[in-house]
Structure formats: C-alpha cells, structure tokens
Amino acid sequence: MTAAEPRGTGLETALWRAVAVYRGLALGYAAVVIAMNHGGYAHPFGGWAVLAVMAGWTGYASFAFGPAAFASTGRARRGRPLLAADLAVAAGCVLATAWVEASGNIAAGRPTLPVSWVAAAVLSWAVAGGRRAGVAAAAVLAAANLMVHAVAGTSGGIGGTTFNGIVLLFLAGLVVGHVVRLAREAEARLARAVELEAATRERERLARRIHDSVLQVLAMVQRRGGELGGEAAELGRLAGEQEAALRALVGAGPAVPPADASGAGTDLRPLLAGHASTSVTVSTPATEVRLPAHAAGEVEAAVAAALDNVRRHCGEGARAWVLLEDGEGEVTVSVRDDGPGVPPGRLDRAAADGRLGVAQSIRGRIADLGGTVSIVSGEGDGTEVEMTVPRARV
C-alpha cells in the first residue's frame, strides 16, 4: 500500500475478508447446533427464524464490509451506523434465545442460538476501532447473554458454558483489536520504508547527473573566477557557494515526505540543510527532528530571515553557523555569525522606524508558534539568534 492509496485497500481489506469468512463458518456451525436442538425448543420454528435472520445478515454484512462496498462508497460505509446495526443484530439473536429455548435447557447450560456467530460483531468492532471498541462490543453481548438467563429465571445463575463464552468474547475483542493496531502500524512503517527506498534511488540517480554536469561547471567557474580576479572573482565565489549548497542538498539523504502516514510531521533537518554553503555551516542531530508541517516551515523561514540579515549587515566575508537541537518538549535553532554585532538599541530603533525584519520575520513567526526568541549581540562579538519552539504548542 502506498501513501497515495486510501487506507482500507491493503491490510484492512484482508482483515474484513477474514471477518466475513469467520462469519460464514460460524453461521454453518450455528445451523448444525439449531438442527440438532430444535426438537427441544419451546418454539422450534423460532430457531429456524433466527437462523434465517443470521443467514440474511451474514450475506449483507459480507457485502457491506467488503472491498466492493468500500471502493464505491468509501470508509464511511463501515462507520458507526453499520457497526451498530451489526452489534444490534447479534444481540437480538442472543436475546431471542430466551423466547425460543426452553427455560430448563437454558438453566442446564445449553448455548444460545447463534453460539459463536455473535463473535463476528466483536471482531468487526475490533477491526474498525481497536481494542476499546472490541471490548465495548463484547460487553454489550455479555449483557445480552446475562439477560437471557434473567428472563428465563434461572436460579442457579449463569453456567460454565455461558461464562466461558463471555470470557472468550472479551478476549477476542481485546486481542484482535491489539493485533490490528500493531499490524496497521507495521504496514505504515513498511509503506514509509518503500517510499524512502524509492526516494533514495531517485536521489542517487539525480546526484550522478548533477555531479557529471552542474557541479563540475560550478567548480570550474569558481576556479577560473579566482584566477581572473576582479568581478570574475566575485562570480567565482558565488559559484562556490552554490556548489557547496548543492552538494549538501544532494548528500543530505533521501527525500522525506512532509508528513508520513502516522502523522508524525516534517523533519526539520533537510529544510535547514538547504541553507548550507561555503559561508554557512549547518549542524543537525543524527536523528529526525519532526514538527508539524506548518511549524517546520515557519521555523525554516525564520532561519532564512536571520541568514539574510547576516548577508546584508555583516559583509561578504562573514560566516554563519546554524545549530539545531532537539530537546525534551522543545526544539531550539540558533543562528550565530562572526560579524560586527548589533549596537545596543539598534533593533528597537529599527522597529520604531518601521523596519520590522527581525520583529516580524523572526520574532513574529516564532511567537505565533508559542515560542521565544533570544538575541545576544555585542559590538565586535557577532550576533546569536536563538529560537525555541515548544512541541506542545505546535
């Protein structure tokens, strides 16, 4: 299953098909039990009527929960109304036992009319909603089993068969729901691994082409510009910066989609690595630093604004360092340069004069994310802009 496929076309289809198979097999078992016991029923034809309802619902549910219905109507077809109807039919068939079956047989521990067929409803809820949904469905059917004994007026309480059946329902809901959740997580990780592998192959192909053409031309321009001097030297310097940035981009690792299937967000490292050049050094952790896509974009834009200030105010020979730190509950990005520094009060005067580059491009963006910005500078000591964004607010 790829990221572009709707959820429900791979693993989920197989799960619903397995539930349909179980429902059909359990229907056959219920038919055998009813055929064997109908002679002792208080209302024998009632047993066949319940079996007919079960058969009809089995056919409809196999279609409604199946891949054909999903393809035509989407996941909403398997939503709460259908799941509620499935559970209601199962509970109704259990409750019908109190009318069809003789009280003495119920007291003796004879199983309910649908026997294990009702577990299909628990499995459906577990597949659709996980452990909690599966356990909730099991609780409804357990209550229906207890009501059968209450209506029949059995004085000895529930028998061992009924108790075991209730326990198995809860176990089915709990275990199947847990396994389904693990399987979906594994499928999401597999899909992501496939995407990363494809992205890596594409990056390697592009890297070979770029190395054979663009990088070699930029390196030649840098070398010849330095030899010629004058305006050509400046052109060579710019070519060298672009070569370094392009090499960093090519070697930064596989392209990562903005958000993976589990909604983990965007890795901030590749965004910041794109600003690396001969005059800008970018340092990031070895592991992913993920933020929501919007927050990651705003942080990257604030870093770009800080580097733009370095280029405009610190001169051609100034260097800058970008450091990304992944703390517990927060992400910190600092931009430091070796320029002349900012004189005291200059930022306040710039804001008063209407020049809002730092106030809006940096402080404003980070403040909107619930973060803080600290600017430390002194004349001749360079400037450091530290931006901290708490994860809880992004």
The poorly predicted ranges are 1-8, 71-77, 254-262, 352-356
Number of strand segments: 7
Major sheet summary line? 5 strands, mixed
- Taken in chain order, the helices and strands follow as HHHHHHHHHHHEHEEHEEHHEE
Rg (C-alpha, Å): 33 Å
Question: What proportion strand?
Answer: 5-15%
Count of the separate structural domains: 2
Mean pLDDT score, rounded? 80
Strand order across the biggest sheet? 2-4-5-7-6
Structural class: alpha+beta
Account of the protein in words:
The protein is of the alpha+beta class and 394 residues long. The protein has two domains: 11-190; 266-394, Heat Shock Protein 90 (2-Layer Sandwich), CATH 3.30.565. The chain has helices spanning 11-37, 44-64, 67-73, 80-95, 97-100, 103-107, 119-129, 131-152, 160-212, 214-228, 231-250, 268-273, 293-313, 346-352, 357-368; strands at 266-267, 280-283, 290-291, 320-327, 330-337, 372-377, 383-390. It has a five-stranded mixed β-sheet. A hairpin with a 5-residue loop joins strand 6 (372-377) and strand 7. Helix 1 runs antiparallel to helix 2 and helix 4 packs antiparallel against helix 7 (119-129). The longest helix is centred in the middle third of the chain and has 53 residues, at 160-212. The chain is elongated and about 110 Å long. It starts with 10 loop residues before the first helix and ends with a strand. Residues 10-191 form the DUF5931 domain. This is Signal transduction histidine kinase. Keywords: Kinase, Membrane, Transferase, Transmembrane, Transmembrane helix, Two-component regulatory system.
